[in-house]
Specification:
It is built from 5 helices and 5 strands.
Length: about 160
């Protein structure tokens, strides 16, 4: 089964593609899509939509997860929210069979992580996840991609 985890920032879209095999082994590809600064907002959204759709098709993704802005964010970035919405729409319109959008708490819940702050320790790299030995070498954004992508596999 192939899943994608996606995490947006105002300037990049981070994504992880996970292929989970029947023997429970997996392969992992972490990448980031840099959004051109010279584009105006509609063209930035169009660029991200087309590129992410191409990525989903190329890897034949059937499950996807999107890490969305926390509900209680002090100053949410409007462009990030627009990116998340465009990506949700494109996933809903694609061949992805099921997808999940989540904040830290709901991602942890889907993964069976107790809501005692453990998810924060996993995200910041203090604790490992799923026996991934080089967990600390990933960026925080890619750790979130892997977590939300893994959460989508529970659907």
């Amino acid at each position: 089964m192939i899943a994608a985890g996606i995490r947006c920032t105002p300037h990049k879209v981070y994504y992880s593609i996970m292929e989970v095999r029947e023997d429970s082994s997996f392969s992992l590809v972490n990448q980031e899509l840099i959004i051109p600064k010279s584009f105006d907002v509609p063209n930035k959204l169009k660029y991200v939509r087309k590129t992410i759709l191409d990525i989903l098709k190329e890897y034949k993704v059937i499950r996807a997860g999107i890490r969305v802005t926390e509900n209680n964010a002090q100053s949410p970035d409007l462009f990030r929210i627009m990116l998340e919405a465009v990506i949700q729409e494109l996933i809903a319109s694609s061949n992805v069979q099921a997808y999940f959008t989540g904040v830290k708490g709901s991602i942890g819940s889907k993964l069976g992580i107790i809501n005692d702050g453990s998810i924060n320790l996993i995200i910041d790299g203090s604790n490992t996840f799923n026996a991934i030995t080089d967990w600390k070498t990933f960026t925080t954004e890619h750790r979130e991609c892997i977590l939300v992508g893994s959460a989508s596999l529970t659907l």
